[in-house]
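Recall that a protein's primary structure is simply its ordered list of amino acids. Everything else, from secondary elements to tertiary packing, is in principle encoded there. The following example makes that idea concrete.
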Amino acid sequence: METPTGPHILPVGQMQAPCLRVDVEVTEGAPTIAAQAGSHGARCVWLLVRVHTEPVGSLVLDLPPQGLSAMEVQAAISGEMGAEVARRLGTGSREHPGQSPFLTSRAEVLRNPPDITVVVCTHERPDGLEACLRSLLVQVYPRFSVLVVDNAPVTDRSKAVVDRFASSAISYVIEERKGLSWARMAALEAAGGGILAWIDDDETADPHWLAELARAFHEHPEAGAVSGIVVPGELETWPQVWFEQFGGHNKLRGFTPKVFSPDTARTQSPLYPLPMFGAGGNMAFRSTALEQIGGFDVALGAGSRSMGAEDTLAFTELLWAGGTVVYQPTAVTYHYQRRSMEELRRQMLGYGVGLTAFYTSLVVRRPRCVPDLIRLVPTAYHDLFGGRGLQSEGLPPDFPFELLKAKRRGMLIGPIRYGRARLDAARAGRVGSVRV
């Protein structure tokens, strides 16, 4: 009997829309991918491969009209990441033969877990908020609470979602000043200390998300912040696929853990977050670390003229101050990217605005870093505009140029936007901005 050959493995740049999204737990066996009927059926499948719940990688497979058998899916996984899977399927440690070392170490963390406040900052997205909260209430973690910060609400829809849950684990406050950074600062004030973990209202959390964030703090007690991996929740439209081709939220970081500290500054400057140190939709900070850096810059972030980068600045400031940031790809959240081209174009514009607003903020807050920034200019130019730079690597020839153009246009106006955002923030102030 012939061993089945695996299906064609596609580079991310060759993904097609729609693309199925499937989680595969290797210890439970590979799934059969059903036949896709009609011209609108999925043309590929994006797999998140796990062993004993630990994510070890992702694969994009060509999906023929007749579907894929479980043996074909298994052959593809074995051919691409067989060594990583085999290593994790070992017999366990001497103390726990036959047990997964990964699950054993997680159980050790959960014996004395830290209290975590999960923060969901939201603005008029009740359906996403509801899905997010449902995923949080089933966390396999014994000591956490959820704080919903309703940012500049114009309706009571978000509060209605919280009220329907009627859970003592969920609390609700209103931040009346518009902007994600204002909401993040309100959470820092309301939480009153400890570890704060953030997830966006267009994401859901893996059941072990909090346990894996806690693992990172347990294994790296010096860490002031931990970031996890954000994977696509769906890939049904071309804009969602294009976003993933551009790099999603984890370009070139993938499933490799990383520790950033003063010891790594020579290999990756804290002033140069490419690849990213982490994303704001899956990050956790010790409150003391945030207080050390003065919290979030309220002239940055979604909802401000700067449109983003408050999370990037927080990571950078922590590293610049001598702190440690851990990238923990076993802490997984699922992001539901915008489905339309116009929404993606605006997001790419926001990335550009946020990038140069971030650097403008650095110069304003830390003028002494200017010589270091000047030395980074050649690297930045290559990565942002070079044919094989970080931003263009892996993009297909037919990737919409208008999206890259939108980001570059945003970069040109970012410094001006940041200056105006600072004026907005000065007018808004902090007095009386939070309501329970």
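DSSP finds twelve helices and 13 strands in the chain. Residues 401-428 form the longest helix (28 residues).
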